[in-house]
Design goal:
By secondary structure, the protein is mostly helical. It has six helices and three strands. Helix 2 runs parallel beside helix 3. The protein is globular and about 60 Å long.
């Protein structure tokens, strides 16, 4: 993070909302994903450093609201890096990222039925020639 830019932005915050998604767990059957554990360690180091920087850059009276979707690793990193400043809750942006609430598969947002896209979709194929022939 560039302190010249970030310090100016973070210095005036009263509330900061952060959505943190942790990497998928390593799975031995994923093709080409042998280094997933290494990626997760890199993510932990990056997230810790980033949160520690944000913690010192924002004003002391600023509220920090964090949505980790109750993922253990992400929650622990936030608790350590920003001790005492965080408030965990579900954020609206987190609903979309984690596919919760209205954005969940059962909520209807991911429904593949987008309705008719042309007049061919409205009527049967055999009726198309009847209605639209010369």
């Amino acid at each position: 993070m560039n302190p010249t830019i970030c310090d100016t932005l973070l210095d005036n915050l009263s509330i900061l909302g952060i959505v943190i998604e942790q990497p998928e767990p390593a799975h031995p059957y994923r093709v080409g994903r042998d280094n997933m554990n290494d990626e997760k360690e890199e993510w932990r180091a990056w997230l810790t450093t980033t949160l520690e920087y944000i913690n010192q850059a924002i004003p002391n009276d600023a509220k920090v609201v964090v949505d980790t979707n109750k993922m253990t690793d992400a929650t622990e990193i936030v608790e350590r890096a920003m001790s005492g400043r965080w408030n965990f809750q579900d954020l609206r942006d987190g609903d979309r990222i984690f596919e919760r609430a209205e954005y969940s598969y059962t909520g209807g947002y991911w429904d593949d039925d987008h309705g008719p896209t042309s007049c061919r979709d409205i009527i049967d194929d055999c009726d198309y020639d009847y209605y639209y022939s010369d």
